[in-house]
Specification:
mainly alpha; 13 helices; about 0% strand
């Protein structure tokens, strides 16, 4: 079955489970940037499982093409299926995963997709040699706030395996940044690392000038 046919079947399934009241609320939650079927994540995952399962024997190219096709659909549920599809089959990919990750991060970008992609798929890809330091550095130096955010938060799940020197390199150039999502990312990344190395994070906050938002987020659970 072609990608188009599989997505059409998935769309029919989502349509049959459409929740009008929830769809309005979800669209409002996303500042009316995206349409919605009004499906909660658990329900959407259950409905889309056969679709995702159908790619088990497909190529990297087919999976990438499916992700791009899902991204071009107007309802937000399709982007969530796409990001989870890539994450499920991430082990199929080599360095070519970089292109599809950049596509996901820089198209229809919002925190709900970017934060999952960065902390799950990017974090795994970097730890397993699919992405390299120069890739992350390139993102960090871009003008796209979502690539910058991803470069700062991709180590969120690393805990005491976090490369502290590299995390600081990703944060410091953006300490004066005016964007809310960058400031929040800085504080979030520091707070997560602070669960493993609180003294390092406290010392960093004390010795670097940063926005009040970044500082509050960084030390929220480190200081009474």
């Amino acid at each position: 079955m072609s990608i188009e046919e599989r997505i059409n079947d998935l769309e029919d399934l989502f349509d049959r489970n459409y929740n009008a009241d929830a769809a309005i609320q979800i669209s409002k939650y996303f500042r009316n940037q995206f349409e919605s079927f009004g499906l909660k994540n658990a329900h959407r995952r259950a409905l889309s499982k056969p679709f995702t399962d159908s790619f088990k024997k497909d190529s990297v190219q087919t999976i990438s093409d499916a992700v791009r096709a899902l991204w071009h659909k107007p309802q937000r549920e399709f982007q969530h299926v796409g990001m989870e599809l890539l994450d499920r089959y991430r082990k199929y990919f080599g360095p070519e995963i970089t292109d599809i990750l950049v596509f996901e991060i820089t198209h229809k970008s919002w925190w709900d997709s970017v934060d999952f992609i960065a902390s799950h798929t990017v974090g795994w890809a970097y730890a397993n040699g699919r992405l390299h330091k120069q890739d992350i550095q390139h993102w960090n130096g871009s003008e796209d706030i979502w690539l910058i955010r991803s470069s700062i938060i991709f180590q969120l799940k690393y805990k005491n395996q976090t490369d502290w020197d590299f995390l600081q390199q990703m944060i410091i150039p953006h300490l004066p940044h005016s964007d809310f999502f960058i400031r929040k990312a800085i504080g979030w990344a520091l707070r997560e690392y602070g669960k493993s190395e609180p003294q390092r994070v406290l010392a960093f906050v004390e010795s670097n000038e940063m926005s009040g938002l970044s500082q509050r987020e960084a030390i929220r659970r480190l200081v009474n």
